[in-house]
Amino acid sequence: MERRARGRGAAYDRRRNEIADAVLEVVADQGLAAVSQSTVAARAGVSPGRVQHYFPARHELIEAAFDRANALSSARIAARVGADAPPREALTVVLTELIPHDTATRTHMRIRQSFTALALSEESIAARMRRDYERFHGRLADLLHRDRETGALPAAVDPGREAVALAALAEGLAYYVLIGRESADAARDRVLSAIADLYT
Q1: CA-to-CA distance for 79 and 96, rounded, in angstroms?
Q2: What is the percentage of the chain residues whose pLDDT exceeds 70?
Q3: Contact at 8 Å (CB) between 116 and 171?
Q4: Which residue in 104, 43, 34 sits closest to 62, CA to CA?
Q5: Contacts of 128 (CB under 8 A, 6+ apart)
Q6: For residues 120 and 92, is the Cβ–Cβ distance under 8 A?
Q7: What is the DSSP letter of 167?
Q8: 124, 189, 199, 132: which is closest to 162 by C-alpha?
Q9: Averaging pLDDT over each range in 1-15, 66-80, 161-175, which range is the top one?
Q10: Contact, 118 vs 62, CB < 8 A?
Q11: Is the pLDDT at 132 greater than 80, yes or no?
């Protein structure tokens, strides 16, 4: 049986996640430009050498934080939706969780917007975001497809097309909320209206 490399295991993964969480805190408070091995070490309460041991290069810190942010968001949404939620209910939760309405969602969307800006100049982040969007759009399209199959959604609806449109609407509104252009309640209502329009 193949053995894990020395130092790898649950404890190793936990320490990496703790450092990635510190990166997210730095990004939420100061933006991606403030991320360095020293700033992350100070936030995590460890030495810069410890950070460098797990993440030898700055871009590795940033990529790990991107993955960690997505994992935390997915876990939060999964806890709200539940395994047996009807497709429309799941769709509604997933999309409205993109609207910053509390500390967790506001922090996550601030972080995501920071990564979106970085993706314009960093291909490694852009590639991760493309893969992330492909999975996300696929998940939304699957929910719409299931309701179309049961007749809950009109047969003329194109699940793939509408999945992209709904995600773009929610994320665009999230940006407006973050800069104070739109209230969270108003943005949420717009998302709910868009979903309702699909089902009529």
Answers
A1: 14
A2: 96
A3: no
A4: 34
A5: 63, 66, 67
A6: no
A7: H
A8: 199
A9: 161-175
A10: yes
A11: yes
CB distance 199 to 150 below 8 Å: no
Given this model, what pLDDT does residue 67 score? Answer: 85
Is the sign of the CA dihedral 37, 39, 43, 46 positive or negative? Answer: positive
**Biggest alpha carbon–alpha carbon distance for the chain:** 58
Give rounded-to-5 percent helix, strand, coil for the chain: 75, 0, 25
Tracing tokens 């460098």 back to the chain, one arrives at: 52
Q: Give the tens place of pLDDT for each residue, 136-174.
A: 999 999 999 999 999 999 999 999 999 999 999 999 999
DSSP 8-class letter at 20: H
Q: Which residues, in sequence order, are CB contacts of 56 under 8 Å at separation 6+?
A: none
The tally of CA atoms less than 13 A away on the side-chain side of residue 52 is: 5
* Per-residue pLDDT reduced to its tens digit, 92-122: 999 999 999 988 888 888 888 888 888 999 8
Nearest to 188 by CA among 80, 93, 99: 99
Domains of the chain: 58-198 (1.10.357.10)
For residues 50 and 12, is the Cβ–Cβ distance under 8 A?
no
Rounded Cα distance between 92 and 194, Å, is 10
Which long-range contacts link 71-79 to residues 24+ away (Cβ below 8 Å)? 72/108, 73/97, 73/108, 76/104
